[in-house]
Amino acid sequence: MLTNDCAICVRAIDYSETSQVVTFFTRRTGKVTMIAKGAKRQRSPFGGPVEIFSYGSIVFSDSGRDKLATLVEFEPLAGTLNTSVLTGDIFILNCCLFAAELVNVLTKDYDPHPGLFDGLLKFLRDVTGGKATPAARTALLTQLALFQLRLLREIGLSPVLEHCVNCKNPFSTRWHEVYFSITAKGLICRDCQGPFPDRIGLTLQAARCLADIKSLTSAGEPQIRQVEDILIRYITDVLGRPPKMAKYILNS
Ligand SMILES: [Zn+2]
Questions:
Q1: Does the first or last residue of the chain, that is N or C, have fewer Cβ atoms within 10 Å of its Cβ?
Q2: Cα 175 to ligand 1 centre (Å)
Q3: 178 CA to middle of ligand 1, Å?
Q4: 46 φ, ψ to 5°?
Q5: Cα–chain-centroid distance for residue 78?
Q6: What percent of the chain has pLDDT over 70?
């Protein structure tokens, strides 16, 4: 069966001298891993090797979902990434690689999420090339956090951020203390924190950013870094291991 779709490459590895195995996040079909035969030949049927973050319309054939699909056509569309990102600021590139990795490891094969596809496309397009200033880095971390929250919502693994997981009291900036528990998968208020030994103390501002997206978009660097730290720890728990790119996000 031949399928047409719009796709972003989230992983590309060499398979042989001439072929690649590529994972595309497609808009209507979800994540599909396929073999791109002859992609690295001089006369590649795809105009050259398929690179991570490539965006295009694709045709692929799948003969049963337990086997690799086969890429038949790839027609690039106006790109995802400004090419200078790939050679410019390593932090920007790492954030893009992290977003692609999360889509690859957290979504299921053939499970479509068109909204998430559009979100990934927008995230990658909004990233600009060149050296990131400190303000641009904060803005990028904000976009990354928004993307991660969207991803978690789309796959049904959103943490509880609007109220205390335990007593269900809605989060308010009048709370004197606020915690996040990875095992409880959400915010914990002061009265309930006792039985949650893994609780992580949050600043009120960081908790507000998690509870309210509007606050997140206007937050400063310390809050965004705390939000990102919580998201990375939470995703690490979901996966049972840290995402490979996670260590490059907050340590740089
Ligand atoms: Zn509580």
A1: N
A2: 10
A3: 9
A4: -110, 15
A5: 21
A6: 96
